[in-house]
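Take a look at the protein record below and flag anything odd:
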Amino acid sequence: MNKRLFVLLVVLMSLSLIGIISVQVFWIRQSVEDKEEQFTTTVSEVLHTVSEKIEERERKDYFDRYINIKDSVGEPKSSHLKDIFFIDRDINSNEIRFYSHGILEEDYNIASTFFDNDSAQDTTTIKGYTSKRTKTIYKEDFGLDGETYQLTAFQKLEKIGGLSSVEKAAFEDVFSEFAKKVPIHKRVSKQEIELLLDRELQNRNLNLDFEYGVYSRGLPTKVKSREFKFNENSLYKTPVFKDSEGYSNYSLLITFPKKKRFLMGSIMGLAILSLLFTLVIVASYAGAIYQLIRQKQIAEIKSDFINNMTHEFKTPIATINLAVEAIRNPKIIVDHEKVQRYLSMIRDENKRMHAQVENVLRISKLEKNQLDISKDRVDVHNIIHDAIAHVELIVADRGGYIESHLDAERSEVVANEMHFTNVLVNIMDNAIKYSPEAPHIDIFTETAKNSIIIKIQDQGAGMSKAVVKKVFEKFYREHTGDLHNVKGHGLGLAYVKKIIDDHQGEVYAESEKGKGSTFYVKLPLI
């Protein structure tokens, strides 16, 4: 994949993911704000309703007492204050309608101490006002001379009462002024406030704990719940016991200790779904990025593999071509010794290419579980000696050494002798390849419970931690730039891993750059 295209795809996907997460965060925050606004509106309605009910209850208490006393006093003394008259004449029926509307003042002889006034000397009496409405219909009767006439009243309706709004306003104004002098804890009880608040909150589906208090001009009163704490940022309030002008010395305050939990709980379902979908998107994004990176790595590995294979095949093919051309030379073909030497070179190079092709085919068969690996009872120490025999000449040629320290008390396992020998040879071959100087290789064995551990240690170039994690992956080779100074195609250790896994064993490596590497092979003992 083109590097620029890869970077562009990653940037676009990252921006898309950030945008999606930002939208989700904004939506959740906006939902919380909307819920909080709805909560505030609902609580304000609750407080307003509770305040009105408390005031209405107090007015009713006073009015009931007023009615009881009025009934016990009897008929009041009345006097007219004002009369309004209106006359209407119907030409068709010769009827005259007479309307009158008068206002009566009624004195009930009820002292104002009715309002619990502390001053016993106040002898002011309570007076009420009512209306008297009269409707009379007259019929015109003319005399025989056609001139004289008289009015005969044949219908008269009289109604006393009304002025309810005026009477009510006057009454409320009077009682509210006197009620101001009554202590707040005598005007309303804790039980009443709690009952009204709980009922109104339940009616609006707000099922959460609350604390309340009544404050007078910013100062606390006796009317408050036990756990109420004044906090300007988390309380809601409304005036209570307002006078006729809408002013009040008292405020009903309420707080909700678990408000945040309640608000979050109200959107928790949608928030969890949103979070799950976001996590799915993030996981998909991470998977897509991983696949892109993986594909890029695979493309690089394949390219490196092809380059290495080309390099590995190019030299044998060139050698074979040169040997064939030499044999075709008339002067050489008669020299039996040289012909044999060139034929030997052709055979060796052909084996070399065949071995590499076999490695590729063997890995492919292992991955498809098509490689038949029969296992027998074998001695690990014997296999180690055979593997050393395959590489000791190469080690000696480079001026190095390979030594064995076989200290395991038990060494018999169930394994395939050929494949297990190849495993050890491949590990040793890697140690030789990646030793810049003369290779120094030590092989140890030891028992650990029911397993035998083979440790192959070299003093070569070593590997970084990142390389150690990937060293058993197919086609993986540590990058050495464009110079392939170490031959290979990244299949040897992948083959090792597959074979050991098939033997129910373990293989792993430890290494440090510049200080060599150690490979461990662990197999179950018989």
The first strand starts at residue 77 and ends at 90. The first helix runs from residue 3 to 73. The radius of gyration is 54 Å. The chain has a mean pLDDT of 79.
